[in-house]
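Troubleshooting log. The previous run stalled partway through. Resubmitting the same two chains, unchanged.
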Amino acid sequence: MRALTYQGPYRVRVENKPDPIIEHPQDVVLKVTHTAICGSDLHLLHGLIADTRVGCTFGHEFMGVVEETGREVKSLRKGDRVVVPFNISCGTCFYCQRSLTALCENSNPSSDLASGVYGYSHTTGGYEGGQAEYVRVPFADVGPLKVPEDMEDEEVLFLSDILPTGYQGAEMGEIKAGETVVVFGCGPVGLFAMKSAWLMGAGRVIAVDHLPYRLAFAEQFAKVETVNFKEVGDVVLYLRELCGGRGADVCIDAVGMEAEGSTMHKMLGLAKLEAGAPTAINWCIDTVRKGGNVSIIGVYGPPWNLINIGTAMNKGLTLRMNQCNVRRYMPHLLEHIRAGRIDAKGIITHRFPLEDAAHAYHLFAQKRDNCIKCVLTPHGHA
Amino acid sequence: MQKQDMRGIGVGKGVDADPRQRPGFPMETTPEPRPGAQLPIEQQRSDYPVLMHGGRQGMPPVYGTAAPPKGLSGVLRKVAYKYPDHWARHWMMLLMADRVDSWEHNLRRVLPVAAVLVLGGLTAKWIRS
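Second attempt completed without errors. Output:
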């Protein structure tokens, strides 16, 4: 089959690989119809996630049609169209039983950080990703969600990661009616966090970024106020003033380890003295009001970051963070899409065949051509 | 009249405004197997060399088989995985192994070309002499 493969930092290539096979009786093999490039795939591309091996295939946002089923799979048949959560979860362990499927302890031998994740280095279990013609899907009766016949692939594709992640980001902020929410980052996850904040009754949503086209997109897509941090001097003081002097009730970090805004953190990240730049977390901590909530959904790698934990402690903040427990959000968000409350496919700006995946990666990474979200179609032209 | 937000909707209005409407509330649910989950889970078997971090008790029933460790980078990875994942050296060695993996890959790609050039050069030199 054809698959995107990692060739070393900043280099990916589409090449031939062996087709996936059933390796466990609860597996299915999926024929991938649509897959997307996630902002966190760029951390892999840039060599920032430990144990990313040359030759592995990225891709944790995908959907497709069941091609082959393992002997213990009960709920899926060949030909079923499904969207797959990025977490690989057994459904029976201590964490899965409590609906914390992102923490499953039965799918990742490599670390205790998280569950297994498709195409996200050997740190999350060493699974092949979905930016390929076919992919192996373990625990097929637990994760995949059958797609209603009347819905198109692109309408539901983002149930695999970014829509639930954005929603959980807003939810972890514990937003109360009328509160002011600041979202750092106007990428796809940030956009869905903004939409979700409105659904949760936020009174005011402010988006922060430095790319004018992304701020303009957020303004139009999520109907939010926007702040370009490169145009306002001290962004923390500016935001506090914008929020009546006290600060926001809730701040959401939807940026992660490749944040702009602090030369010191960027340099320390490049020198591997910390795991990327935690600039957005520190801005969240400084911008939120005392006693407020900070929600972190941006991705950071081990082993450490320089975070203003003393400020957070003294301000009495609540910090909540996690990889998204995708499966528990899928039915709820499917209904939001169906009801027209969230236009998930509205963020797609670029579509490519799988063969052009390397080009798509570089376009997305360099924020060229007003790129917000790239979707790949491994079978058939985009 | 109620104040309106940026969307032209009354401030504080939202279908999920009540936290109990949100799927992640409460964060931890009453323990029960997820729909479709099956027990017992059979152990996945393969010849793939799985590296398990030093703090883990036993193999999980399912794991990935994307890219087996190989070469010098593979040796570094095997050493790194002897340490638990809360040790910094575990991660620093893995990051180092990633760079070595990339260098080894580049070397493997240029080696055939370099070998042809060297052999060609030596042959030409031998013919001239």
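Takeaways: Chain B touches chain A through 66 residues (CB under 8 Å). The radius of gyration of chain B is 28 Å.
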